[in-house]
Amino acid sequence: MADAPKDTAGVPIAPVPPGASLRAATVKVIVSPDHRDWTYSLGVPVHFAVSVTADSEPIDNATVTYSVGPDMFPGEKKTAAVPLTGLSIDGGTLNVPGFLRCVVTTRVAGRTYRGLATAAFAPEQIKATQVEPADFDAFWASGKAELALIPVDARRTLLPDACTSTVDVYQVSFRTVGRGGGNFARIYGILCEPRAPGHYPAILKVPGAGVRPYSGDTEMASKGAIVLEIGIHGIPVNMPKEVYDQVYAGALDGYWLFNFDDREHYYYRRVYLSCVRANDYLTSLPNWDGKGLVVMGASQGGQLSIVTAALDARVTGLSATHPAMCDVAAELHGRAGGWPHPFMPGPDGSPSAQATPAKILTATYYDTANFARRIKVPGYYNWGYNDEVCPPTAAYAAYNLITAPKTLGLTLELGHAYTPEQAEAINGWVTTFLGIK
Fold first, then answer.
1. Which CATH number does the domain 27-125 belong to among 3.90.1150.10, 2.60.40.10, 3.90.550.10, 1.20.5.110?
2. Which of 131, 202, 309, 422 could form a disulfide with 315 if both were Cys (CB 3.0 to 4.6 A apart)?
3. Catalytic position from the list 274, 299, 305, 319
4. What's this model's pTM, rounded to 2 decimal places?
């Protein structure tokens, strides 16, 4: 019998259903735990069901490579054939709270496909590893006192082409803390205000990681809210996208680790305080209702939502989606920490180059977990078990510290993504909380 055909990497090409190659079949690797809620008690074994399909038809004896290990720490790679009835992988169990992830890949017709699933073990019992410095509150009180001495110096420019029949749209900016004693730094954003006279609650939208333009949120403003969407890098937010791409590839490449060895000058100090300054601006507007102020965002924005709510007593509610910077110290203890993973060991287990005493200390002042301890207002939180950027282990470590009223919306199979259903749930919580429609 002739050998099975191989792709360009020398890997055998799995057979596909008759005619599948002719119709350029869509191949999927489907992985799922054997509990419907993907959640297990400590010590209970998990089995992962695996199937490989082409146009939803099983591929017989597809060759897969898989690994099972704790969240963000993959285990040994193994190879198996997947029969038409599917493959069951024994994932073992955990005797301490956490997550086990099964990652499966296959190659079909020269292309690699990937699927994964993540089982939770008593996630509500996950405890943060991050320590809290004794002067945490004093450090941030000092920063806010410095901010208060800087005039807001707000400026705004109407953007006629962005306005709607019911919402006015402006680019705005205001001064914030900076470096070098000049304090000429500014934060820019897009403000959307209902045109109708009246008083409205306010929403601060804080951004995910990266450098990009922003267009504001006229839809939420049309429901009856003042909405301010900010950038964090001190540059206007309505320039052509290629400008931001160039800056991100150059001067701001890896900004999340800038001055990480100095708590007074770490990049996020200005960012955190600038979110408070954004609220200074919002609450100064004559059409703010003087009551409702929600901060919301995803990833880095989820981080900033928790931080801002903890730093600013004017915030009345928050929405944090797959928050970043959660329990980053966990990676020093062999457990998944949050983005940007400064202390993640190398593939060979070697310590991260970032794991210096100065940087470990700086992290204690900026870790989302230490702000989560200070949340006093209701919040809506959501993430997925399959998130490999802001892993669920780290998110739960911060979430479990929150004693204020909280609602957790899970999209189990979601990775670091944003679905329409998730957006609807988030916006639904915010509009209900603020009493707008």
1. 2.60.40.10
2. 309
3. 299
4. 0.94
